[in-house]
């Protein structure tokens, strides 16, 4: 992953339900009073906590800034402190409706997760519509996601790329697949995908050992592409009815392809994954090619159509360019868009609408004979 991409991801995940920086600032505020227990929890001072718990009338669940000492310890990633407080009888439910299981899942504290489960918190119980597995995904902890899956998360309760109206892939998605895709965490997405495929294959009594072999590619995107390639080459793969209900392993694969190729409103596909699949000489399903061809023809018809396509599907142009050898007709003649794209490629500019507008502005005289305004 390039440094630019890493910076982009940092910006995209900066604002979350749990904000470590602001919460730490709250814990260590100098000018506002907090309970000694709360401060000791944020500092991870276990000895001080033991002393305080011996104080008569101490309230282990006293709230400071709408947070208990247990929550402060989890936010500060003081795992041993959180375990001490839980063992000492701290309440596991928090003031905001969250609980220790969800918070520990977000911050990657496995031992706290196990302790919370042992104390009776349900790994499949949501709070405010958010499940512990979603918290782990948004926290960016692949190992925690794997841990929760092994602990019995019902991943079958979630769909890959839900088809319901209004279910878009956004920063606020409450679906773990959508959250992983939005944050470009393909390693986490693959963990969720493999768990789902395993479950679906068992339901359908398919032999899935050869369909889900261990993958050794170091790059998460290439591993995901290889998983899809193995499946699309297998005898089990058959085209699905896109409008059918979410059932069977092949529908899971199809919904994943929708994500990869950006086949949804406001959905950013992934041109790198598309390139991996094409390089692996995978037979791309016909509905995907029809979708790309339709948008290619629409954009060629004029700048207005291209603007609309890119507004609703930000990466569609990059995806089309990579897949162009598969969708372009042999007798197709070049048009204004080909000239602009060639100019962008020569200058190593991104294939975005902003770049195209810039290029049209600078080369308007050169292209005015071919651009249908």
UniProtKB/TrEMBL annotation:
Keywords: ANK repeat, Repeat. InterPro entries: Ankyrin_rpt, Ankyrin_rpt-contain_sf. ANK repeats lie at residues 128-160. This is Ankyrin repeat protein. It comes from Fusarium sarcochroum.
